[in-house]
Amino acid sequence: MIPIGFGPQVCADLVAGATREWLLTDGLGGYAMGTVSGLRTRRYHALLVVAGDVPASRHVGLVSLDPVVTLPSGAPVRLATHEWASGAIEPKGHELLERFDLTDGLPRWRWRIGDVVIERELAMVHGRPAIAVVHRLLSGGPIRLALEALCTWRDAHGERYADGPPPRVIPTADGAVVEQAYRLAGPGWAPTGQWWRGAHHREEAARGLASEEDIWYAGRFGGTLDSPGDTVEVLAWAGDLDDRPAPAGEVVTAARERHWKVIAAATPADPVDATLALAADAFVVRTSAGPDVVAGYPWFGAWSRDTMTSYEGLFLATGRAEEGRELLRAYAGTLSRGMLANTADTGSVEYNTCDATMWFLHAVDRHVTVTGDTDLAAELLPALREVVDAHLAGTRYGIRVDPADGLLTQGAPGAALTWMDARVYGVPVTPRAGKPVEVNALWVNGLAAIMELAARTGGDPGAAPSVHARALDSFRARYPAPAGWLYDVLDGPGGNDMSLRPNQLLAWSLPRAPLEPDPGALRAIGAALMTPLGPRSLAADSPGFTGRHRGTPAQRDAAYHQGTVWPWTIGPYADACRSAGWRISELFTGIESHLPEFGLASVSETADGYAPHAATGCPFQGWSVAEALRARRF
Fold first, then answer.
1. What average pLDDT does the structure give for the chain?
2. Closest listed residue to residue 591, CA positions, set 576, 602, 579
3. Which end of the chain is more exposed for a tag (fewer CB within 10 A), N or C?
4. DSSP notation for 95-109
5. How many Cβ atoms are within 10 Å of 299's Cβ, its own excluded?
6. Bridge partners for 50 per DSSP
7. Contacts of 18 (CB under 8 A, 6+ apart)
8. DSSP element (H, E) containing 496
9. Gap between the Cα atoms of 205 and 81, Å rounded
10. What is the pLDDT of residue 634?
11. Dist CA 539 CA 536 (whole Å)
């Protein structure tokens, strides 16, 4: 893995340290998350965030464990860092940080107070909602260490305030149970019970959202560290509260060993490869329905479009083919009227995309091609034929094959069915009604995939061959535009849309793409769209271009696909360039340099269209990681 570590010049600077975030996940959709400096800048930052029945229905539990050191002189030193509604930063424990490291995927801090050095390590238990916190004396002493447990129990997207009842805290022999939802255990528990009012989250304020909450100081753990090597260990867990996890030190060791096994299974070619392989692990989760994919942390759940777009990078590039097989079979079971279900972050199931099903065809094809799993191909082939038949007959939201040219058309009032699906006050920003270029590239690719899967298994391809021939001819004849690149949408309400966007890259990058790469078009795309983190979603000289993905929810959504950079699209760009015979060895330098900059050891959801292309959106995004990993390797 690439080394990621920072000294006091970053750790003690809240601008630098508090904008670099770490993440630990539990394999269920829950997580722990925070910043290098220790400042909680988001409502989502906590040591124990617990997933519900679906990954998106998360609750924040243990907010923090604030270390307070009592020196041999009797002087107390607070090592936590908080920001308050008044604007005050108090305490300022970040000023005593001499080092932060992300070691083997686990965050570690070291504070220095004269000759006293205290280390903190965190790890989660994979497969259950549990966090282990280990504080260790490295030098100096003896000292007394208290750990103040700040607690809540609330929806991860909300807040809790002191004008309501405090969390119910029931003492146990070695800690407490909070709201019958999670348990704390460690040495020297002393209950307190006090609201800490007005905790401020600067990132939520910057995003135009509620930015303050009140936190319940439930009590404190404590112990004496007499000599270097002594520890104070605390556990917090949800689920079966009587099933205590292993001791915290063992949890840390087990997590480190598991991370190296995850990396080894991916057979990485270099340290960046290893880093991305471990980053990918965060997004693969197991629910009661089987394996699934979290689209991004900290606020997304599972979305079928993201899952299928990410499939090859998250599963096939990381040695998870068996898990992937299970996932594909489960998703196939959600097909209805030829459409793949899209599990919304509310936990409900919706059928509201025109492209997720096309990505599903691609994912099945790649799985069978890479693994040779003809049994899966034979099992799913009837469902894939039904997808074609349903699109020929017409399905929801006007999604259907146009009999005039064999291409897919789509659109309905108020709907945004492609991946460019942002809305402002319910109105789609980029509705793209008609025949989007990437949807039809995926359609042609998917039809060819069905034909290949049928040939591999001796099965019936159904209508795919005849539909493919018609759609391929029409794609080649109709999408090239006078500007020298491809139309973004054909036959829309306003005619053909020639906006320069990265969507057309799929017409050249897919394994069964409808077109051979066009060097002139690729040069135009590279010149107008490429940034260090990948292509912009719209050329800067286009009407409606917005170069800053900042501000209120409405402002951010208006910019979401109107110039904002999407790192996942670097994958199709790399494939298209590679198919054109171009060298791509330098293409990923910006992504590689980004790994220690924002979401540590991961790739962000988005970035500003304007230089310096500061990262935005989720700091940890599944398809951004997946496509960088896949495209670098294959």
1. 97
2. 602
3. C
4. GGEEEEEEETTEEEE
5. 16
6. 59
7. 35, 36, 37, 39, 41, 202
8. strand 495-497
9. 18
10. 76
11. 7
Burial of 288 (0-12, 13-18, 19+ CB in 10 A): exposed
Residue 70: CB atoms within 10 A of its CB come to 16
Q: Which of 274, 348, 323, 237 is nearest to 102 (CA)?
A: 274
CB 138 within 8 A of CB 237: no
Q: What is the pLDDT of residues 273-287, one digit of tens each?
A: 999 999 999 999 999
Give backbone dihedrals phi and psi of 479, rounded to 5 degrees, phi first. -80, -30
* b/e code 475-499 from CB counts within 10 Å (16+ = b): beebbbbeeebbbbbbbbeeebbbb
Cα separation, 7 vs 172, whole angstroms: 39
Q: Counting beta carbons within 10 angstroms of the beta carbon of residue 578, is it exposed (0 to 12), middle (13 to 18) or buried (19 or more)?
A: middle
405 CB-near residues (< 8 Å, 6+ apart): 470, 471, 474, 478
- For every residue of 547-584, DSSP letters joined together read ----SSHHHHHHHTTTT-B-GGGHHHHHHHHHHTT---
**Unique residue bearing structure tokens 């995850």:** 262
Rounded distance, CA 447 to CA 454, Å?
Answer: 11
Q: What is the pLDDT of residue 289?
A: 87
Q: What's the chain's length in residues?
A: 634
The pLDDT tens digits of the residues spanning 457-488 come to 999 999 999 999 999 999 999 999 999 999 99
- For 91, 92, 221, the CA distances from 117, given in Å and listed in that order, are 18, 16, 19
Q: pLDDT per residue over 206-263, tens digit each?
A: 999 999 999 999 999 999 999 999 999 999 999 999 999 999 999 999 999 999 999 9
**Contact by Cβ (8 Å): 376, 441:** no
Q: Which of 588, 596, 546 is nearest to 567 (CA)?
A: 588
Q: Which residues does 634 contact at the CB level (< 8 Å), separation at least 6?
A: 312, 317
| Strand residue runs (E) in 239-307 | 284-287, 290-293, 296-297
pTM for this entry: 0.97
- pLDDT value of residue 305: 97
What confidence tier does 343 reach under pLDDT thresholds 50, 70, 90? confident
Beta strands in 302-403 (DSSP E): 342-343, 349-350, 400-401
Can you tell me the distance from the alpha carbon of 512 to that of 507, in angstroms, rounded to the nearest whole number?
Answer: 9
